[in-house]
Amino acid sequence: MKLSARYFIWALLTVAFTLSACGPIARPTLDYNEISADDDEVRIQTGSVKVSKNSEEQTPYTIAGYENLFNELRTSIENETDESLAKSITDVIISTTDDKKNQVEESPTRLEMKITLKSSYQKSSEELRFETLLENEGEKRIAKNIEQESADKTAFPFTSDVVCHEKNCHTIEIRLKKNLPLNDKKTFDENSVIGQAGILYSLSHSKIRAQHNNNLTDFSSNTLKDFAKEVQTHKAKRASVAVVKGASYSQVQIPKLIEVRTDLVDTASQPSEISMVKINGELAKGELVGNDPKSGSLIFDVTPANSNETIRIYSDENAAEPPPPMPQLVNTGKVKSKSIFAVNSDRDKLPGTAYVSAVFANYANNNEVQRMVRVWLGQEKNKFACNRSSYGPESLKLFIEHAQNIAPFIKKVTEKADVTPEIGYLLLLESPYAVNPLYPTLTVSKAPGELVTATGPWQIINATARTIRDGYGHPFLIYPTVNRRANPNDDRTFFLNSTYMATLLLRNLFKKFSFDPALAIYAYHAGGGATSNHVRKTKKYDKYDTTLSDILKYRMQTKANCDYLAYTYAFLSALTIGQNLNAYGLENIKPSTSENYKKRLRNPKSLLPTGI
Q1: Spatial distance between the Cα atoms of 44 and 40, rounded to a whole number of angstroms
Q2: Number of Cβ atoms within 10 Å of the Cβ of 483
Q3: Torsion of CA 248, 253, 259, 260, to 10 degrees
Q4: Contacting residues for 518 by C-beta, under 8 A, at least 6 apart
Q5: H or E segment and range at residue 399
Q6: 3-state SS, residue 113
Q7: Do the bridges between strand 110-118 and strand 125-133 make them parallel or antiparallel, or are there none, so unpaired?
Q8: 100, 398, 418, 521 — which has fewest CB within 10 A?
Q9: CA–CA dist 361, 63 (Å, integer)
Q10: Which residues have CB under 8 Å from 389's CB, separation 6+?
Q11: Which 8-state DSSP code applies to residue 400?
Q12: What are the pLDDT digits (tens) for 176-220?
């Protein structure tokens, strides 16, 4: 009976808001029933992948250099998260004070917090204020069931819990709780909580470096020369906020010198606009270039007003957590590291290539990818039940030797279709073509108990080949297999022809699974239909777009599916190594001197687009 009464009150409030929205409003007000996300497109990171989607369809979050803490918070609260509440949080300001309410950054005894909620219905905001004494709990400082000080508790029945993860409260976990209205009660209790939002706040001081973004020795402007010298003599104060299933941002500030406000800063895997930047107190233009998701370090370009020169600024954070054993990789778009398949990341000419390559790069520090990196390097055994013995250092070294010869041909084909040439790492998994170019004409694959018609370096099956031919209207030559042998005139047995076929297929898969292009690689092995089915199954746990990490997290894999996961992580890890050979000490592996790959390079009886 008590429960029914609560929901009756809830229903009445909802109806009351609906009716009031039709009439005049004396001043912009915000009711907790109408809290919702803005309709603007936001850049977000799902799992380890940054994508750009409508905020109502995705779960944005950032790790802000505190990956483990944030993931623990996300795991513990996501089933109770009120997504509308999370997405309405637009600002979080924390002040730590002593007993006399003087601001301090060392051993505070009190905490003051302002959380701004924004309504997309009335385009108005409401500020919730909390103030509390902190209690010691082991190494942590805590406060529970803090009642807000400012807004009307009937319209805004919010409380909060805070946990400081160290005595100085530089890392704070916040749970904003939405409660049923007080009614006849004098205080809120746990039974009245109807929704929560999880927030991770971090305060740090970072070193700042500045240089010309074109790596020139100096600026032509004396003002910029002075700024670059001055900024490096200070540490910047940086506050980062990460909301589970909500927005995330950072503020970097050196008083009177530089102030930067970035939305979703730690999810950036390709350049994106900064929401606000000031240089010497004047507004300027800013763009994120890259970041290190483990430490929170970031790189951004700033162009002052009335200037044609751009400053590249590095905010170097100390790692909040121990770095992983493998190299940290920062996707700045400017890092000069020897790679097998050079990527043209021109977003204007090749937007699909730039986007997919950036997402793949953002997988570099994923735990499963790093684990498979160690498998390729022979430092760890493959833990997947469907272990592939060919995943190891010998296969990797042979591939690096031979792939350097065929990389220019792959680039020619993929640029024609705006697909990243990094798909070339599939050859390491699909066939020994890069090592033995005569392989495609010898035989087709044979699985236990059935004939599989996968043919050529990219192992394209008959049905898929026909679908590509009919779907794209290109006159590919496709022939049935006879006695488990490929027809020597089949386009799939020639490298350029089959690469074009595989590129068209992958372009379609990258569009289909644009929310996480890693699933396109998964689909290349499992099939688009099977992958879509796995995505649908996972959505019963989470209505947002499924990622590769979600399939692993929700244990959707069957034994066969486990093979799909192992395959995809093997690809991403091979790509991570191959695109960063210097980081793994493999840059001195010389290309093979063999030219056998040219023997079946192009089918003389078939057509290819001009330029291939």
Answers
A1: 12
A2: 6
A3: -20
A4: 49, 359, 360, 363, 547, 548, 568, 572
A5: helix 393-417
A6: strand
A7: antiparallel
A8: 100
A9: 16
A10: none
A11: H
A12: 998 887 665 666 666 678 889 999 998 887 778 788 877 656 788
| CA angle, residues 529, 531, 535, in degrees to nearest 5 | 115
| Contact (Cβ atoms closer than 8 angstroms) between residue 95 and residue 116 | no
Contact 295, 64 (CB under 8 A): no
Look at the block and give the residue holding tokens 């980081």.
Answer: 583
DSSP string, 332-346: -S------SS-----
> Residue 450 in contact with residue 609, Cβ under 8 Å?
no
Per-residue tokens: 37: 């996300």
CB 340 within 8 A of CB 400: yes
DSSP at 475? -
Kindly state the DSSP code that residue 493 receives in the 8-state scheme: G
Which residue from 120, 144, 119 is spatially nearest to 130, judged by alpha carbons?
Answer: 144
Distance CA 53, CA 61 (A): 13
Dihedral class, residue 505 (left if φ above 0, else alpha if ψ from -120 to 50, else beta): alpha
- Measured between alpha carbons, how far is 257 from 230 in angstroms, rounded to an integer? 8
User: ∠ CA 92-142-250 to the nearest 5 degrees?
Assistant: 25
Tokens of 117: 């909620």
Which structure tokens are listed for 242? 């990460």
Q: What is the pTM of this model?
A: 0.49
Task: Copy the structure tokens of residue 46.
Answer: 């799902």
Distance CA 80, CA 66 (A): 22
DSSP string computed for 126-161: EEEEEEEE-EEETTEEEEEEEEPSSS-TTT--EEEE
Read off the amino acid at residue 400.
Answer: I
Per-position DSSP letters for 312-334, written without gaps between them = EEEEEPPPSSPPPSSPP----S-
Location of structure tokens 């079946």 = 600
CA distance 149 to 368: 45
Residue 290 pLDDT: 63
Residue 59: the pLDDT is 31
Say what the pLDDT of residue 396 is. Answer: 93
For the chain, list residues with pLDDT below 50: 1-63, 265-270, 319-335, 442, 450, 538-544
133 is written with which tokens? 């004494």
Per-residue pLDDT, 599: 84
Residue 415 sits at the vertex; the CA angle it makes with 409 and 417, to the nearest 5 degrees, is 115
Q: Which helix (H) or strand (E) holds 132?
A: strand 125-133
Determine the Cα–Cα distance for residues 501 and 458; give it in Å rounded to an integer. Answer: 9
First to last CA, the chain: 74
Q: Largest alpha-carbon pair distance within the chain?
A: 88
DSSP string across 66-86 = -HHHHHHHHHHHGGGB-HHHH
